[in-house]
Amino acid sequence: MASHDTDILLVEDDPQDVELALFALRKSNLTSLIQVVRDGEEALDFLFCNGQFSGRSFNHPPRVVFLDLKLPKVDGLQVLRELKNDPRTKMIPIVVMTSSAEQRDLQEGYKLGVNSYIQKPVGFDAFQKLITDLSYYWLKTNQISSPPVAARA
After folding, report:
1. How many CB atoms lie within 10 A of CB 26?
2. What is the tens place of the pLDDT at every residue in 67-86?
3. pTM over 0.70
4. Which CATH number fits domain 8-139: 3.40.50.2300, 3.30.1360.120, 2.60.120.280, 3.30.200.210?
């Protein structure tokens, strides 16, 4: 398996959801390599190695991105669109985790190439179980392909 700087990129602007997710991940001992970004612009900067993340290696993408849809600056669907339209980031698994129950968001997400679309459960225990189950699947069960060495843009 390739070395990764980040196992999970959590793109979430709700501080409570961030804390719950981090608590669940620590409790499950699945990973300590978690990067949290709070808006869509910061997510794109991280993934495309721009701005404050310009020193990050493009050759070590996160193993999975947990992406909220309702984000400041750049919404989650636009983040998804940009990631899936770029050959350097197209293969990164993206899991949309949102409170949105809107069918058009679900359809647009899959049309853009999301790997999974999940409505966030209400309640601490259910949310904790969801994060643990998703992390276990994407980090332990799912087989990943080593990305080709990407040229810097």
Report:
1. 12
2. 999 999 999 999 999 999 99
3. yes
4. 3.40.50.2300
